[in-house]
Amino acid sequence: MNGQAPRHHAARVEAAIASGQAARSALVASWRRSSRLHHLDPGGRHSPMRLSEAELRAARERIAPLLAAARGAMDRLYQAVGAAGCCVLLADSDGVPVDRRGSPADDATFQSWGLWTGALWSEEHEGTNGIGTCLVEQRPLTIDRDQHFFTRNTLLSCTAVPIYDHDGSLAGVLDVSSCRADRTDAFANLIALAAGEAARRIEADLFRKAFAHARIVLTQATDGQYGGLVAVDADDLVIGATRSARVGLGLAPGRPLQPVPAADLLGGDTAHDHLAGGQRAVLQRALLRAGGNVSAAAKALGVSRATLHRKLNRFGLNH
Questions:
Q1: How do residues 38-97 score in pLDDT, each as one tens digit?
Q2: pTM of the full predicted structure?
Q3: For residues 44 and 150, what is the distance between their CA atoms, to the nearest angstrom?
Q4: Enclosing domain of residue 306
């Protein structure tokens, strides 16, 4: 890169920030955060900061379930894009790549640019970039070449997709980065689709392992594309939901789900909830719907309060 190019990129970034475009452009808003909030210089030449080996090991240990769930999906994704000069990275919620797949022929290039395990690619440290900006905006995105904040990162094209854990909290980012200048828009679209599919497979695997003893139900998609997953226990109570399922069902993400009768949440005929056979699941659902009020639950079930108390005691249900 000649001497004029770095100055031109830095000037373009600063001009866009000064123009007030941040209010209508997500990219310029990210450039503004990089400059004004994190006090970064787009012309800065320092290499990305790196964790020590001990710090990287600790970061991997903290997200061991995510690492395990991601291995197969990362392998398949790399098989699809690796020959085209792309590497695949899994970053934690701090923006640190903790695992990667790449071709030995391209490894030296990626390593020289700092796109490697243990590097700090949060927006705070690297300005606008695939991993860091995806973490901030929590949406799939591509930061292509001169959309990066730092001039030294403008040879990279990065597509990043957020990954959410079984409670709907942001767990990390799956990133596909290219070191080739000839990447076409059509191929970039294919990368985005493949990365999105891989991220959903990782989320599904995380969810199924977290609720290994529950029945997993696929919810109806709200956007016409993909549904979410819901975990239903033996008492027919919903005890977990992926982020996409929570969005569709109007449930708050980022925390354990309070048990909810499946019929109430997913639809179904609640008239079938009767006490024939004294089913424990029916009692559970009735209590939940009544907010723990035994009298209200007994009335809804058509039995006396004393009868309901006996049945609750029989099944060891708290009341």
A1: 999 999 988 899 999 999 999 999 999 999 999 999 999 999 999 888 999 999 999 999
A2: 0.81
A3: 7
A4: 272-319
| 94 contacts: CB under 8 Å, gap ≥ 6 | 59, 120, 122
Clarify whether residues 76 and 200 are in a common domain.
yes
Nearest to 5 by CA among 37, 46, 45, 55: 45
Q: Mean pLDDT of all residues in the chain?
A: 88
139 burial (CB, 10 Å; 0-12 / 13-18 / 19+) is exposed
pLDDT given at position 225: 56
Residue with tokens 């990447």: 183
Token pair listed for 240: 């977990």
Can you tell me the distance from the alpha carbon of 45 to that of 221, in angstroms, rounded to the nearest whole number?
45
* Single-letter residue type at 208: R
Residues 54 and 195 in one domain: yes
Cα–Cα distance for residue pair 239/260, rounded to 1 Å: 7
What is the number of domains present in the chain? 3
